[in-house]
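Hi R.,

Here's the chain you asked about this morning:
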Amino acid sequence: MQPENKTSPYTCREYREEMILLSLQKKLSAPDLTLKEKEQLLTEIARVEARMGMD
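And here is the predicted structure, written out as tokens:
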């Protein structure tokens, strides 16, 4: 008998997206960022989160 709550396998692409997101979040915490750099990082973080279905 199969369990009713099947989960899909964790893919390399999902891992890659998570690592990209973590890297962007780490860069965002740098104290010497300009306002423009912070805005660009936040935009990219939002894109990655949307691709991951986190939006």
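One quick note: The chain has a mean pLDDT of 89.

Cheers,
M.
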